[in-house]
Amino acid sequence: MDWLLHAGDDPVHKILLMIIAIALFVVVMALILLVVDRRRNPSKWFVAGGFVGPALVLLAAGLLYPAFGTIVNSFQNKNGSAFVGLDNYARAFTEPAFLLVLGNTALWVLVAPLLATFIGLVYAVVVDHSRFEKFAKALVFLPMAISMVGASIIWKFVYEYRPQGVDQTGLLNQLVVWLGGTPTQFLLDRPGNTLLLMVVLIWIQTGFSMTLLSASIRAIPTDIVEAARLDGLSGFGMFWRITIPSIRPALVVVLTTIAMTTLKAFDIVRTMTAGRYGTSVVANEFYEQSFRQLNTGMGAALAVLLFVIVIPVIIYNVRQMRLAEEVR
């Protein structure tokens, strides 16, 4: 058993473990097929249970058990040796350092989705039916193909700082120098540094927003548009009175989806500032407490808080998606 659990860095050992895992999967699937196939006229519930059952067991082992363990750890002290009740949660809502983290997270959830959705909506309306529509949309959608870490590295170079008198390698500081200004360390001062970090997420998510909202705009029935034009609507009036109400379900889905993404902005914060200079968010602080400071109790409490924050957003998102399907 020790041989199976401690693979180390031996590549041969890892390959053997992979082969064993694949073999176990094949054996389990063969047993399921054998049991399901041997029964004559099996019920739908029996067949569904045969195929879904193992997945549910693995889901419980991989998600539910760790989640329960995290909740238990959130009520324990730093090394998990004593029960401390709600002390970790009290620290999260009273200590200035953690209040700053919660405030940054709230700022991410409020600002980034609104800006990404607004820019994507305006862009979708402007380029719709234009001569270069496909190229313009592809250009904005391209950042979606870049990972959060890759995009963060790109923008870290954009914000790069060199002392005055030295050739600037950062695009933003080079523009400042060309305009006669002084190079600035943009990521040092809050709350501006947090807003500059949000630019990375907005840059990525604008393509997602534009794509969904552009499809929703095209799905607006032509008879509604023609009736509005007969009533004298055009330009901004058409946009505000017809387009926005017609795509409201899609707008809500885009906003809530990007809001959930912002709660996982760990990659951006960790890559660009590592949470320093007052830029940390809950996801980053959870990592910091759990794996850098080895405070498993506080880290678990922050993980639970993040989970609690996500739940209502997910529920609202699912409801809006169902409403959008009903409208269709």
Please, could you describe this protein's structure?
- This protein has helices spanning 2-5, 11-38, 44-73, 87-94, 96-127, 133-141, 148-158, 171-178, 192-218, 222-230, 236-246, 248-262, 266-272, 282-292, 296-327.
- By secondary structure, it is an all-alpha fold.
- The longest helix has 32 residues, at 96-127.
End-to-end Cα distance, whole Å, is 55 Å
Class by alpha and beta content: mainly alpha
What is the averaged pLDDT score?
Answer: 84
Order of helices and strands: HHHHHHHHHHHHHHH
- Largest sheet geometry: none
- Helix amount: over 70%
- Poorly predicted regions are none
Q: If you compute it from the alpha carbons, what radius of gyration comes out, rounded to the nearest whole angstrom? A: 26 Å
Q: What's the total helix number? A: 15
* Morphology call: globular
Instruction: Give the beta-strand count.
Output: 0
The proportion of strand residues reads under 5%
